[in-house]
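Dear support,

I submitted the protein below through the web form. The confirmation email said the job was done, but the results page showed an empty box. After a refresh the structure appeared. I'm attaching both so you can tell me whether what I see now is the final result or a partial one.
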Amino acid sequence: MSTIVSVSQPDEKGSFSTNIADDIISEALKSVEKAKASVRGEAVPDAPEAPAAAAAEGPVDAPAPAPADDEVATLTAHLEMSMAKGRELMGKVKDEHEKMPRAVADLENYKKRAIKEKEEVQKFGSEKLLRDFLPVVDNFDRALEHARTSGDPESLKKGIEMTRKLFEDTLSKHGVNSFSSKGELFDPNRHEAMSAAESDELPPNHVHSEYLRGFTLNDRLIRPALVVVSKAKSPPEAAPSEAPPPVETETKS
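What the results page shows now:
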C-alpha cells in the first residue's frame, strides 16, 4: 500500500502549496475497511448459501478475529501517522521557504552597510588625529606673528620650544614616541649606521652620535635612528727616522 503526496512548486510571488491527494487516501481507507469486513464475514459478495442441515443444527458461533484483522488495524494507524508527519514536514518546508528571501535580503543589507562603513573609514579615519594637531598649527601661527611684531628673540625661542613640546605630546597621545640611542650598543633592528667615528669614550660598535632620532608606533618601529657608530682608534704611525747628515770631505788640490 503506498501513499501519494503532491507538492506544487512555488510561484513568482513565493506562495507554497501543500495539497495532498485526498481522493487517493480515501480510496486507500475504503480498501482497508473492505478488507476488515471481509475478514470478519460481515459482507462477502457471491458467498455460497449454507446447507439447510447446517441451519437445523443450531446457531453458529462468530469466527474469532483473524491475525489479519490486527495487521489491517496496524497498517491503518501507520497510514494516519504517515499522513500527520507528511503534513508536519510540509509545514516546516513552507516556513523555511518563507524565511529564505528574508535571509537573503538581510545579507544584502549587511554587505551594503559594510561597504559604506569602509568608505567612511577611508575618508574620515584620520579625523581625530588631525583634530588633535590643529592646536600645534595655531601655535606656529602665533610664533610667526610674534616674530613679525616683536624683536625679542628669546621670547620667540621659548614659543618655538613650547610648540615643539606640544607637537611631541600630541604624537605620544596617538602612540608615536621617539627614542634616543646615543651611547647604546648598535642594534641593526633599531639603528641605521650612516658613518663611523673613532672614539676614546665609547667602546667599538656603539652609537657615537645621532643624525636623526628613531620613532615607534605602539612599540613598533616606524623609523630607525640614523646614527654614527664608534670604532677603535687606529694605532699611531711610527715617525720616520732621520737620516744622518752627509759628511763633507775636503778635496785636495
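Response: this is the final, complete result; the empty box was a page-load delay. The beta strands are 176-179, 191-198, 207-212, 214-217, 220-223, 225-231.
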